[in-house]
Amino acid sequence: MDTDRITRLLVATDLSQNSSRIPDYASCLAKALGAEVTLTFVDPLADDGSGSEGHMSEYRSACREALEQQRRAIADSGVAVEAQAIRENFVVSGLLQATRRCGAEAIVVSRLGAHAGDQPHLVGSTPLRLLRQAEVPVIIVPTHVAPPERFCSLALPVVADGSLAVALEIGRQLAAQLELPLRPLRVRRRVTMPFSAAGSSLPAPEAASWTHHGVEIRDILAQRITSTIIGELAPSDLLIVVACDIDGPSVLGSAADRMLRQSMVTTIVLPRDYLLIHQRFVDSE
User: Fold this and answer.
1) CA–CA separation, 208 vs 171, rounded Å?
2) CB 3.0 to 4.6 Å from 1: which of 34, 181, 248, 281, for a disulfide?
3) Which domain range does residue 17 map to?
């Protein structure tokens, strides 16, 4: 299987305080991948007559200035970059259209929304919606912390499910492009029940519907898996997560969601449609 090399990144910015580190992450990722950047701001405010003409003109002038400042910051790091502002009522729709138009092979977006404030464990609605609709990898960056000077490894949680083979192959090719070692993080499929006197174990999917003192065993196991994986991550790691697990009904789906929310590292998320497109290449080999 030969996946597309990432040669262009669509970097989303909302120009809020929470996106102030977007240029730093864009530069870091673009240099690591050898990619160019299309910095994109989607303006959801349409000229519907609800605001004064002077107010809208002032608002858009401020947006252009802020966008240009971020573009210059990326350009000053030595990365080829262009910037664009798009008027679209729905931010995710605008980002997806822009991705197709510029031919970007990945989307970079802040984990935090414009109104997250000082709550770094929140994940904004824009990245979550992108995960469900994008056809290219979505790179979610924790802009509440500074990016590492350089990435040191590509970490991939290894779970024996239907997406493992294609995720591993994509991981290998990304690691080769990044010139980083691929570090598999093993996840046990059998987990000992916390209330089992005999110390017996059950397959995680079977345990998903059990409860213990009113708490779903799925959540207990998911937190244990998450804690184990996060404990093995360093700030300079890149983490790969399979998006079809996010918010899923299984232990692994719950764990993937928790990893996205709790980890402090840049996370490359492989959307379901992206995996399906490349699955046939793995099946044919």
Assistant:
1) 28
2) 281
3) 8-183+233-283
- The reply to whether 213 falls in a domain is no
Q: Which residues pair with 250 in a beta bridge?
A: none
The candidate with the shortest Cα–Cα distance to 172, out of 187, 154, 158, is 154
Asked, for residue 138, whether it belongs to a domain, the answer is: yes
Query: Is there a contact between 212 and 128 (Cβ–Cβ < 8 Å)?
Result: no
Separation CA 71–CA 22 (nearest Å): 10
**Domain count of the fold of the chain:** 1
Q: How far apart are CA 20 and CA 27, in angstroms?
A: 13
Is the pLDDT score of 31 beyond 80?
yes
pLDDT averaged over every residue in the chain: 79
pTM of the predicted protein model: 0.82
Residues 6+ apart with CB under 8 A from 12: 22, 40, 41, 42, 95, 107, 108, 109, 110, 126
Residue 117, H or E segment? none
